[in-house]
Amino acid sequence: MPSKTFNIALDTQAFDQMTAKQKQIISAAIDLFSEKGYANTSTKEIAAKAAVAEGNIFSTFHNKRGLLEAIINPVLRSIFPTTAQLSTVTQPAPYKSLRDYMYDFCTERLAFLKANRQVIKIFVAEIIYNDKLRQRLIKDFPASNRYWLQMADNLDQLKAQKLLVNWDNIKILKTIWSVMGGSVLGYLFFDQPIKTATLEQNIDTATRLLAYR
Amino acid sequence: MPSKTFNIALDTQAFDQMTAKQKQIISAAIDLFSEKGYANTSTKEIAAKAAVAEGNIFSTFHNKRGLLEAIINPVLRSIFPTTAQLSTVTQPAPYKSLRDYMYDFCTERLAFLKANRQVIKIFVAEIIYNDKLRQRLIKDFPASNRYWLQMADNLDQLKAQKLLVNWDNIKILKTIWSVMGGSVLGYLFFDQPIKTATLEQNIDTATRLLAYR
DNA sequence: ATATTTTGAGTGAGCACTCAATCAATTTCC
DNA sequence: GGAAATTGATTGAGTGCTCACTCAAAATAT
Predict the structure, then answer these.
(1) Average pLDDT, chain B
(2) Closest CA–CA distance from residue B139 to any residue of chain A (Å)
(3) Domain B79-210 bears CATH identifier 1.10.357
(4) Band of the pLDDT at B6, cuts 50, 70, 90?
(5) Best mutation target, A129, A131, A176, A213, to test chain B (most B CBs within 10 A)
(6) Which residue of A has its CA nearest to B173?
(7) What integer is the mean pLDDT of A166-185?
(8) Superfamily of structural domain B12-71
(9) Who has greater pLDDT, A68 or B139?
(10) Distance between CA atoms of A78 and A47, rounded to whole angstroms?
(11) Residue B10: helix, strand or coil by DSSP?
(12) Assigned CATH class of A86-210
């Protein structure tokens, strides 16, 4: 089995400290959960795919839900990336045009999506019926982490430059994701690759909707 | 328990022929599946909520999946409504403006969504991990049912009137739903009511994106 | 030799599903 | 009209199975 890379956040700390067998378990669980769903996957299956005894899952992750959380928590913490991941988008750059910014923002977030497709799929599916997880996401959404502040800075700057419409930042974010949403869902759940042309179209659309007026 | 109304399609034929107990089962299953998910709901629970013996579920619906399909199939058949449901939107009317059309279209589909919220939630959740269901949806999407043909007619007419951008109809539909998507998902899974103001904004946005140019 | 990790048969609980028995409505016969 | 017979719906204890999870023993590392 090829080793799985984890782009998600800095839980690589935790991940690096795991034994090989524990990594195998996480890896197998990600494959199975994302393919068949959490509820439809048994711990026996996971152990078999990970080439590990079933008991190993429980000595490491306490119970099945603990395994799920070990997979999901990193996503929750890095949907909005942490300091170490800051890309060009979030660094204060005087963008020449709104489209430039949109392009950077969308490609960066899409790279994150592609790098963590399986885990995000598990996360999204789980959020449908998991109230606590949903509450946490809603609560954390406008959290004052550095990423969000940085992004708000950029948006405010673009507004000052009269490149961006003068809406509040949440509404702007919602608009962007509304435009991207179809492609993202298609990619996550319908295995539709996001073509460059489609991405460009989405970026154009978002730019048009958010242009200064 | 107040009797549940089923706005979905004409499976009311089938539904009307059911005995009271069978209707109770469907109703209880819809409540439980939409709240906790199919996989997390036991037939014993359903029977208890329906005030019916567990065996009744199996004599009527053969197995648990049969019960799910009895709930889901009508949605699949009426995501695009059938003849009897045709509202103003789908009737050939010379719309004075693109916004008029958008308004009618969006409010009609939103009414459908509201009237069938639970069942659509079950359907959407199920489609994530059910390949066969997904295939059927993709296959049926541009099906030549009367609704779709009628809608295509309307769109073509709007194009001829130079009110609507000259894209192909699928792309137009995708654009509309992309704009509405955020509100729809929020309503389905986050219990966020769709405010009139938000709806109006969405309609404005869609109109702007699809205006003739 | 000791400590730690790994193992997998074993466990009770809960699952979807069965089926012989019971009940209720309708039909048959006198 | 009413008793008896027939039919079909309804019941829920019972069944086999799979599930998440345990733990004493075995393997491995120190």
Answers:
(1) 84
(2) 13
(3) yes
(4) very low
(5) A129
(6) A182
(7) 92
(8) Homeodomain-like (1.10.10.60)
(9) A68
(10) 28
(11) coil
(12) mainly alpha
